[in-house]
Known about the structure:
Elements: H1 6-33, E1 36-39, E2 45-49, E3 55-60, H2 64-67, H3 69-99, H4 103-111, H5 156-165
Antiparallel strand pairs: 1-2, 2-3
Amino acid sequence: xxxxxxxxxxxxYEAKLADLKKKSEDLSENVAAASATVTSKDGAxxxxxxxxxxxxxxxxxxxAVELGGPRLTALILETARKAQKQAATQVLELFKPLGExxxxxxxxSDAIPxxxxxxxxxxxxxxxxxxxxxxxxxxxxxxxTPQPAPVRGRRRADDDDDDDDNPW
Length: 168
């Protein structure tokens, strides 16, 4: 760039702005369409999340009913975490042309969690399927205390008569 030529500087600046606008529009379109779908290893759970990590779809396969509540819950959460991480990584890649090297890009990158679980171990196998034992009933119930008889108030008709003489 020739600093002595202001027209050239303006043209280059306008070209940079046009490029930035194009990248911004592409980012908006691509982020809006971004999602991630993950299926558990056994096929019992499939989770789809949007670009913000929000749940968009949850499908339970035929094996899901065999797992029981606690194991199914753990598998859904594990699969959702994987899908959320994939979506976040996808959005970060889309943001790269605009923000790479910036503090905002670094913050977004740091917000993606590391793998917290071992891929070789099915965590939901470790969940205890045994239900909590019901608390034992008390050995004997204490005798019920007699309730006092209800106090009867004035009849509704008596209240209406009072209102005619005393409006306040």
